[in-house]
Amino acid sequence: MKIFAIDDEPDVLETLHEAIRDALPGAEITDFRRCQAALDAVREQGVFPDVVFTDIRMPDMNGLQLAAALKETAPDTQIVFVTAYSEYALEAWKRHVHGFLVKPVTAEDICDTLKHLQHTSVPASWDKLRVRCFGHFEVFWHDQPVIFTRKKSKELLAFLIDREGAACTRDQIAAALYEGETDMQAAGSRIRKLISDLRTTLTEIGMEDVLIRERRQIAIRPSMIDCDYYRMLEGDVAMVNAYRGEYMLEYSWAELTTGRLFFRSEG
Prior knowledge:
By secondary structure, the chain is an alpha/beta fold. The protein is built from eleven helices and twelve strands. The protein has a five-stranded parallel sheet. Strands 8-7-6-12 form a four-stranded mixed sheet. Strands 9-11-10 form a three-stranded antiparallel sheet. A hairpin with a 5-residue loop joins strand 6 and strand 7. The two termini are 36 Å apart.
């Protein structure tokens, strides 16, 4: 997908570019600080973008004028106005633009807009929980860190992800998370609280279906996880190259997987 990002303020343009890049990692994004330069790229170089994200108040040619020119030159190009001035919204719709965003723009704003545009698509990974297992374990939702109320709740999710969707009993989880604990009844009670806490955290971001609970067992749905570890297992060359021998460093129970990954990478 070809994207034009246009704004005369360098810092704002950089923020817009990053938001588009995060929303559409594979897109070809070209930045312009003048609408005329973008129009010249279309008319003189034959570059026809799928979507243009442009500021409205610009020196020389403004965004409204650009929209009118592109409607004739590149009728299939979809235009989204990005501005700090909401009073332009009515004029924008009169010109049949395809979207209107108010600064500052986020990747989530971009994705929400793209969902309503014709002939565009949002990456499937955007609706997945993004997880980093290489190095330290981190969890993100729409490129924002997920905040866990308890460290052990985060560790519980890490353990379930490490199990790749296999069902786990509370005793299995307790043996890993509370290694050396002799009172398994007390450990089991803590695990029940952690499961409840983890479900609450996931519910707050609308991802409660990541967890599967059935017959006193719990697992995760790998299809709802976008994870460097899973991608490596699937043979993703970029993830194979990204692995540097470090996996969920903060968890001792993860050392077994680290060993398996070592032999996999050596092979």
